[in-house]
Specification:
Length: 229
């Protein structure tokens, strides 16, 4: 998928860049957006004892909603092709998961998705409708309070996004944009840093979380300003 998007981007620039430069038909669009999304994921937690034997496994799936703001910039090459970059400065935070151990100790875990960045190709039509596809990357900050005192390592993941939207001009430079998109992220794994065969009484054994089916549906409303021809 990523190779396909890269090839499409290059071919689009090759196809449109020469004519656009000849006409001086290059512009830049900046925008700010309000986003409201539904995210879902599945996770499996594996706990090993101090002898490296699997003591407990637990699997859960869930969804949550979250709103956030984002900013983006686009290079418009001709009338029909735009290359964009979008950044979300807000943290997207999952609900907190609570668990009580056999010794009545409480463990809590939540995840912050930080620095959500999207690089995308946008194909425009004369009717205001546009199609969008791109690559996503984000950092996962694992926030935990574990009875053992151990912590999970923070990780990063990548994925893809596809969307469709409508752009309505509000004069020569300003426009309002509505968009819906679907995002899918790669599976991730994180642990407390103890090797599977390195469990001891001192480190309380290995804890590992494997997350899959990380995906989201996002609705966006944006105000944009276009500079240049």
């Amino acid at each position: 998928m990523r190779k396909i998007l890269t090839v499409i981007s290059v071919l689009s620039l090759i196809s449109f860049n020469a004519n656009a430069l000849e006409r001086g038909d290059i512009s830049a669009t900046i925008g700010v957006a309000a986003n409201s999304a539904v995210y879902g994921a599945s996770a499996k937690e594996t706990n090993r004892d101090d002898s490296s034997n699997i003591r407990r496994t637990a699997s859960e799936s869930g969804v949550f909603t979250e709103s956030h703001t984002s900013g983006f910039i686009e290079l418009n090459v001709g009338e029909f092709v735009s290359l964009g970059y979008e950044h979300t400065p807000d943290s997207i935070t999952t609900p907190q998961a609570d668990r009580t151990t056999n010794t009545n100790a409480k463990t809590t875990v939540s995840v912050d998705f930080n620095d959500l960045n999207i690089a995308y190709l946008k194909l425009n039509t004369p009717f205001g409708v546009y199609l969008k596809a791109g690559l996503v990357e984000t950092d996962l900050d694992i926030k935990e309070s574990m009875a053992s005192g151990s912590t999970y390592s923070n990780v990063s993941t990548e994925g893809t996004i596809m969307g469709i939207g409508y752009n309505k001009a509000l004069g020569e430079r300003l426009a309002v944009r509505v968009e819906g998109s679907y995002m899918e992220l790669d599976d991730v794994s994180t642990s407390n840093g103890v090797a599977a065969d390195g469990s001891t009484v001192a480190n309380s054994g290995r804890n590992q979380i494997d997350a899959s089916n990380l995906e989201g549906l996002n609705g966006k409303i944006a105000i944009t300003l276009t500079l240049g021809n």
